[in-house]
């Protein structure tokens, strides 16, 4: 008998109407992004009263994540290109990170974000596959998934491969097991440590905000 594999569909609801004081974050998603990293990032930031827009880099707003979770994004990336975001955040996973890298629209938005010294965040494969390969980690320290960390230049790779690195307006992290710490760290740089600690407490997570690292 053929076994039927279940498919989980995640429909993301918009949070309450944004107030002027709320920070806004773009989470770019693509087919093949890592499930835990994607959903954890979105959920944690929204718990911390961040206005999160989830945008698909592909033609469809429905994306299939690395382990078959189907996610319905808020918008297509092209439609939010004119907007300004306090942070652009990228989940990892393969081939998700490659699909993010290959989006010319996303590359342009990230380069503009970096030039204007606004926050960028990336986890797992994305710090290397997206940020490094687009030249966005120059003058910063970073970490990423272990199989990619050895490919980072020595003046970029953070000593000791910490779970989360904050450096020069960029937050990076290692993978699915560090997704909650990553999301809380992004929340901390946007809304302060108290906001991150409050969310961590509600999630029953021990969290200490990383100390920002200076470039080598």
UniProtKB/TrEMBL annotation:
<keyword id="KW-0677">Repeat</keyword>
<dbReference type="GO" id="GO:0005737">
    <property type="term" value="C:cytoplasm"/>
</dbReference>
<dbReference type="InterPro" id="IPR006287">
    <property type="entry name" value="DJ-1"/>
</dbReference>
<dbReference type="InterPro" id="IPR029062">
    <property type="entry name" value="Class_I_gatase-like"/>
</dbReference>
<keyword id="KW-0496">Mitochondrion</keyword>
<protein>
    <recommendedName>
        <fullName>DJ-1/PfpI domain-containing protein</fullName>
    </recommendedName>
</protein>
<dbReference type="Pfam" id="PF01965">
    <property type="entry name" value="DJ-1_PfpI"/>
</dbReference>
<dbReference type="GO" id="GO:1903189">
    <property type="term" value="P:glyoxal metabolic process"/>
</dbReference>
<dbReference type="InterPro" id="IPR050325">
    <property type="entry name" value="Prot/Nucl_acid_deglycase"/>
</dbReference>
<dbReference type="InterPro" id="IPR002818">
    <property type="entry name" value="DJ-1/PfpI"/>
</dbReference>
<feature type="domain" description="DJ-1/PfpI">
    <location>
        <begin position="23"/>
        <end position="187"/>
    </location>
</feature>
């Amino acid at each position: 008998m053929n076994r039927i594999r279940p498919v989980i569909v995640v429909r993301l609801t918009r949070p309450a109407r944004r107030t002027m004081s709320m920070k806004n974050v773009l989470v770019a998603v693509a087919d093949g992004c890592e499930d835990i990293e994607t959903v954890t990032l979105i959920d944690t930031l929204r718990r911390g009263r961040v206005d999160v827009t989830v945008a698909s880099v592909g033609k469809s707003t429905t994306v299939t994540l690395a382990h078959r979770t189907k996610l319905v994004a808020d918008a297509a990336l092209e439609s939010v290109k004119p907007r300004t975001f306090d942070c652009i955040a990228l989940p990892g996973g393969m081939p998700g990170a490659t699909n993010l890298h290959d989006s010319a629209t996303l590359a342009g938005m990230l380069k503009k974000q970096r030039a204007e010294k606004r926050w960028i965040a990336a986890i797992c494969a994305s710090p290397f596959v997206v940020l490094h390969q687009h030249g966005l980690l120059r003058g910063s320290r970073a970490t990423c998934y272990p199989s990619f960390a050895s490919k980072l230049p020595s003046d970029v790779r953070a000593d000791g491969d910490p779970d989360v690195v904050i450096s020069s307006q960029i937050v990076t992290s290692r993978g699915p097991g560090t997704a909650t710490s990553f999301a809380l760290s992004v929340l901390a740089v946007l809304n302060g440590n108290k906001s991150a600690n409050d969310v961590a407490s509600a999630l029953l997570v021990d969290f200490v905000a990383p100390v920002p690292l200076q470039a080598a």
